[in-house]
Amino acid sequence: MEKIRIGFVPLHRYPFDETWAQELKKRFINVIEQRFRDFVELVYPTEKDVKMGLVTDDEDAEKTIKLFRERGVEGIVLSTLTFGDELAGARVAEEFRGAPIIVFATKEPEAIPGGFRRSDSFCGTLSLASALYRRKIPFLYGGIVFPEDKEFVNSFDNFIRVVSIYRRFVGARVGIVGPRPERFETVTFNEAKMAEKFKQRVVHITLLEVVEETKKLSDDDPSVQRIVSEISSYADTSQIPREALLKIAKLETILRRFAESKKLSGIGFRCWTEIQRYYGISPCHAMARLTQSGIMTACEVDVYGVLTMIIQYAASLEQTPPFFIDWTIKHPEKDNVFLAWHCGNAPPALCAAKCGLLYHSIMYRDVGVEKAYGTFEGRLKPGVVTISRLVEYDGEFKLFITKGRALEDEKPSFRGSWVWVEVSDLDKVYRTLIEEGFVHHASMIYGDYVEPITQFAKIAGIKAVVV
């Protein structure tokens, strides 16, 4: 992934100890550049830019703003290295209103002889926070820290994930292939509100156009052959005809071309039953491979589902793909365990063992087995998971967030992509989903990302519903 550009604002106020402030600044820079160098490009004013390399007044603030603009900074860290000048900090924040901003206070050094306070950072942090609050600038608070503290490292780690989510979510372009299923009102979306609140765009693509473009590809097209080879290397393809495998590869090739040419962040696909009837496969595995490669792809033209996947993928710093699931049944024997399932769209990296390509266990009843091939089926791996879902009612967006654990449990076994997931209180989860208007689709990702997703929601003006 492209490195996240973080702007560091080292705030200081006279007559507190500028030597201490300069020392702390260096320590923050060293910790960030050493521990987060794979993901972060840190931008900060030097002594060539501002007095002492510290931001102390309006002139320093303007120079820092110019520097950040030139470098394309995406998130702001305001740190009161001493008492800090709240107006200088607020001025920088004003220019980056809406972008993720976090405030850190710093711990006190030893007092010098005579009892003079060298820093008094927390007192100044209150002034800075009140200035941001007064200006209605959303921000996060990272605590009172030294840069070497675990608390700082954890807070900064969460913050860069917030920035990662923000930069992928705001301005996202979601392609939709075909209309939503007529009986699935659950996946309606408000295109105008998406544009108004988050600068997002829905890009409409007809299913006919996609199918016609796939038909132009030859079986020996290099992209098609590469995809067939890749699939054969990790999946059991013994139960799927060669012709169906080629059709999967052609569909993936064309969807990738649309994603590239239209600069799509993700795709909502009309996955039944026209694609089976008029093209001759189920698109599940093509969708799974797109998701694994970073193009979030959701079933049944679920635009808010795509956006939820984008949130989760960005929270992982693009290190692991999400799985687009249905909330389904309770475990027949275990409390607080439910089945996370979908027809056959799990990214290959999530399989517990070698999954196989089969025919769609539902669609074959309407279209026949020969037109239903393309699902990627098997149990997913165990591990900690985060489950989320974005919805919107009356222009208000809200985001369900919970954590669970995918289990090794293999019984009973199911067709499709699936895993049993244990949560702390399944009845509360189900009740919250029902009473808050959340739908039957969700996104599940391996790892605990509850904190950064919740913090992102605060910055973005989305109501977080955490269970």
Observed structural traits:
isomerase activity, Fucose_isomerase_N/cen_sf, 6-stranded antiparallel beta barrel, L-fucose Isomerase, Chain A, domain 2, Rossmann fold, alpha/beta, 5-stranded parallel β-sheet, L-fucose/L-arabinose isomerase family protein, 467 residues, isomerase
Summarize the main sheet. Answer: 6 strands, antiparallel, barrel
At CATH level 3, the topology of the largest domain is L-fucose Isomerase, Chain A, domain 2
Q: What does the overall shape look like?
A: elongated
Question: Would you report the number of β strands?
Answer: 18
Lateral strand order in the biggest sheet: 10-11-16-15-14-17
Q: Quickly name the level 1 CATH class of the largest domain.
A: Alpha Beta
Lay out the secondary structure:
Elements: E1 4-11, H1 18-35, E2 40-43, H2 58-71, E3 75-80, H3 86-95, E4 101-106, H4 121-134, E5 140-145, H5 150-169, E6 173-177, H6 191-198, E7 201-205, H7 207-215, H8 222-234, H9 242-261, E8 266-269, H10 274-278, H11 284-292, E9 296-299, H12 303-315, E10 323-330, E11 337-342, E12 356-359, H13 364-367, E13 373-379, E14 383-393, E15 396-406, E16 417-423, H14 426-435, E17 441-446, H15 450-460, E18 463-466
Parallel strand pairs: 1-2, 1-3, 3-4, 4-5, 6-7, 6-8, 8-9, 13-16, 15-18
Antiparallel strand pairs: 10-11, 10-17, 11-16, 12-13, 14-15, 14-17, 15-16
Helix pairs in contact: 2-3, 3-4, 5-12, 5-15, 7-9, 8-9, 9-11
